[in-house]
Design brief:
This protein is of the alpha+beta class. It folds into two domains: 194 residues, no CATH class; 96 residues, Pdz3 Domain (Roll). It has nine helices and twelve strands. Strands 6-5-7-8 form a four-stranded antiparallel β-sheet. Helix 1 packs across helix 2 and helix 6 packs antiparallel against helix 7.
């Protein structure tokens, strides 16, 4: 356990965000340099500069006062959102003047760097500390629970839930966790006989997380905890990253369709709470938390919202189909609209965070 005192939450949060943002921008920077695009500024944070230095490559590296983001400004960019300045396409080494595929690669590199960081951190923990391997097998059914009502039995091996293959007990738990009051079709192996059983997890309010989750009412069968070698750690970390991304996509789907509860929505305040809790549990827990944040940032940035990397990619795809970029005025309107959406969303989730904090 790490005792960071009163400043533990913000310090842990800022440390995790700084690491994640640095790798994101490093992805943009690395591919831009190899695509012949000059990077003029690499900034960690926004606002007034704390310190900075000029590198031999010509890039000015800076650390700013507000470490809640960052950017790389390439030659010909008008601002940190990569809006091209007038005549930027004619400037040698500019982002706007680079081939379309190069621009798409540069933009994609940021989110991909976040996914890579997540895999690296998972693998590091699995090699240094270890990973629990618990089969998706029911070791015990609690009486008067959703599992008991559905007829699940000790020794049942869960093969899939709603058609999604379940690899281990952790994956089973995550599916149940996000499905309170939702009927799920369990495909199980019971003494070599395949059965399909409908199960509806009961809702349970988790005071620590301030949210409602699904509860099955079972204990797992015995598993094993062991350290992994490099190759196995890398493969397992990649699979876990893919699984986590799938979970996040399902969460985004619930938000879009209006099926998500208020307890699932969280912003900077809630992330800071989780960061502080993870840091107090130990360095390995903090690394896992940072990996989760990195994967989350990579996925969110791929959403087709102007200002985000996914919005840029969408406009580049349209450019590829049209054979020319969208009109600059339209791009400017889309960027401002995207910024307004993000700012509004940030205000809403921060309000939810503060309301949850005050009411608790």
């Amino acid at each position: 356990m790490i005792d960071l005192g009163v400043l533990g939450y913000p310090l842990a949060f800022l440390t995790a965000i700084t690491i994640v943002v640095f790798f994101h921008e490093l992805g943009h920077y690395w591919v831009a340099r190899r695509s012949g695009v000059a990077v003029e500024v690499f900034s960690i944070g926004f606002g007034p500069e704390l310190f900075g230095w000029q590198a031999k490559s010509g890039t000015y590296w800076r650390v700013a006062l507000l470490p809640l983001g960052g950017y790389v400004r390439m030659r010909g960019d008008e601002n940190a959102a990569s809006m091209a300045s007038e005549g930027a396409t004619r400037i040698k080494g500019s982002f706007a003047g680079a081939p379309l595929l190069s621009r798409m690669a540069i933009i994609s590199a940021g989110p991909l760097a976040n996914f890579l960081l997540g895999i690296m951190l998972f693998a590091l923990v699995y090699m240094a500390v270890g990973k629990a391997f618990i089969p998706a097998e029911i070791g015990e059914v609690m009486p008067e629970t959703a599992a008991a009502e559905a007829g699940l039995q000790e020794g049942d091996k869960v093969l899939s839930v709603d058609g999604r293959t379940v690899r281990d007990f952790a994956e089973l738990r995550s599916v149940v966790f996000e499905s309170p009051n939702k009927e799920l079709l369990f495909e199980i192996n019971r003494f070599s006989v395949i059965k399909t059983i409908p199960v509806t997890p009961r809702p349970i309010y988790l005071e620590d997380l301030k949210m409602t989750a699904g509860q099955l009412g079972v204990r797992s069968a015995p598993g094993a905890f062991r350290k992994l070698g490099l190759s196995e750690a890398a493969v397992t970390a990649g699979a876990d990253t893919f699984h986590m991304t799938s979970m996040m996509l399902r969460g985004i789907g619930r938000l879009v369709t209006g099926n998500a509860s208020q307890s699932e929505v969280g912003g900077p305040v809630r992330i800071a709470e989780f960061a502080g809790d993870a840091a107090r549990q130990g360095f390995a827990s903090f690394l896992i938390f940072t990996a989760v944040i990195s994967i989350n940032l990579g996925l969110i940035n791929l959403l087709p919202v102007p200002v985000l990397d996914g919005g840029h990619l969408l406009m580049f795809m349209i450019e590829g189909v049209r054979g020319k970029p969208l009109p600059e005025r339209l791009q400017s309107v889309l960027m401002r609209g995207g910024m307004a959406i993000l700012m509004s969303l940030m205000i809403v989730v921060t309000f939810f965070d503060l309301f949850r904090f005050v009411s608790s």
